[in-house]
Amino acid sequence: FLAAQRVFRHMRTLKPLFTIPQRWKPVRCIRARYCSNLANTGVTSKERRTTPDKFKSKVSSGPSFEDFIRGVSVKKTYAADGDCSDHQSYLSEDLELGNSRKVYFETYGCQMNVNDTDIAWSILQGKGYLRTVDLSEADVVLLVTCSIREKAEQTIWNRLQQLTAMKKRRLKTQTPMKIGILGCMAERLKTELLEREKLVDVLAGPDAYRDLPRLLTVADGGLQASNVLLSLEETYADIMPVHRAPQGYSAFVSIMRGCDNMCSYCIVPFTRGRERSRPVSSILEEVRMLSDQGVKEVTLLGQNVNSYRDTSEEQFCSSDLTQLSRGFETVYRPKQGGLRFSDLLDRVSRIDPDMRIRFTSPHPKDFPDEVLHLIAERGNICRQIHLPAQSGSSEVLKAMRRGYTREAYLDLVMNVKRIIPGVSLSSDFISGFCGETEDDHLQTLSLIREVGYNVGFLFAYSMRKKTHAFHRLQDDVPAEVKQRRLEECIGVFREEAARVNAALIGSTQLVLVEGESKRSAQDLCGRTDGNMKVIFPKEDVSAQHAESNSAPVNAGDYVLVKILSASSQSLRGRAVSHSSLRGTMKHCQLDEHVASDRNRTETCP
Hints:
Blueprint: H1 2-13, H2 45-60, E1 102-107, H3 111-126, E2 130-131, E3 140-145, H4 150-169, E4 178-183, H5 184-188, H6 190-196, E5 202-204, H7 212-220, E6 225-227, E7 250-254, E8 256-257, H8 268-272, E9 276-277, H9 280-292, E10 297-301, E11 309-310, E12 339-340, H10 341-349, E13 356-360, H11 369-377, E14 384-386, H12 394-400, H13 406-419, E15 424-431, H14 438-451, E16 455-460, H15 468-472, H16 479-502, E17 508-516, E18 523-527, E19 533-537, E20 541-543, E21 546-551, E22 558-566, E23 570-579, H17 581-592
Parallel strand pairs: 1-2, 1-3, 3-4, 4-5, 5-6, 7-10, 10-13, 14-15, 15-16, 19-23
Antiparallel strand pairs: 8-9, 11-12, 17-18, 17-22, 18-19, 20-21, 22-23
């Protein structure tokens, strides 16, 4: 520091090499600079004056602020040679091409993320990227992430450390690996991912997959690129996902995105935005395409799938209010008009009588009787309903802002079982939510016993930033208490599931075969209409309508399986014969006709 001071004093004693007399004031001279074609000799002064005028005219008539706001449609006539579209890209389309670079996907979390992976891959495939299942040969690694719980995010952080180490070890002769985070975690933790940890090159939120080619191009230039903007309109309705379901027997079709329920524990409205529904026409087109490809089961997807409400066409708009389950309410005003979930379910189920239709994940508030009666009447709509309770205590449900009481939930369960005999029920439960007492926990255990679920998803509460609970409630249940209560819930659930499944012993179930069992190559596995896993020996069985001939059983086949034993997790049996969904529907209708409701209608399309 002292040395620097001495140098500074010495420099002050030096006389400047050039001095400007005080009577001369500095004048800034601005000279217009033009494109190279104006540098030619022979350019007249009139032409020099005309060119800036033309440039000013183009600027004044070019894109305005509105052109850069998503969702605003502005029609412009640009003063340029040739036609220009409304969309102005910063990069040419050639630069956004994949040029056969290989992409590797890893998908975490819910089935919506599986569908998001299919959408992202469809977009990149259209730009010339190739897909690989070998991580070592990938040029781009994209993780489709989940933020619903802390454990899910920690899994991604650990994986990013591994991928970063692999990226650094990569030979300099190879193309540099780019790492991207897609989905909910990209939106929720954008600052930490980009600035603090600096482990990723690309971030794309759930509504920004169309921008992936541009983001990857920017990353190729050595910069980090992100787009985590949420949209009020994006449904990817015009993008046909590239389905990669096992053996091609089953597929997921997204029908809506986002959630308006604002449950106090849930991060989904903040990572996936507000509810918006995909136009019914594009959904039906995708289901027809899957039917033509031989798909035997389609699951309709959405964060709140049964709140579907298509308002894309004027004919769907009316003053009718959305009907809720009896005793349920919402934090938002009743919605008007639109094609409802029951209408969509009706149209989808009529496309292919031999295609099973499922849907997930619903909210209990959106099960009016018209939906339940349709499930009961239409044989290819699976008689399996997910009714996420979250808690058995009315006080906890109020703190969760679920919009119902314990009593209203149990009334709905009774109504479902009355309208849909033999229905299979599944649920979600959270142990140790804010303020949960021991009595609240005991009420949850009694609810599990009273309902009798055969499938469940149970977790200890994990507080998420941005949620209502984070701002207004205290995460006051100790971790060890949460874990103990969770284990007790799991224990009671397994007892009840084993009891429910044991009632199926001796029955014959129609099973859609998925493939070989993971535990034994000598066994096959599949799922019943109620979504229970069935394991049975791999052996030839009689062909449909031909008892004397036998045929092997393959993935995608419907087979009748006699159930011989059961546990809380699965059923075991032996295949009896090949079958079809339509044939089984007719057989069941004849058997159940006497016991059916008088108001029940013929169900075979």
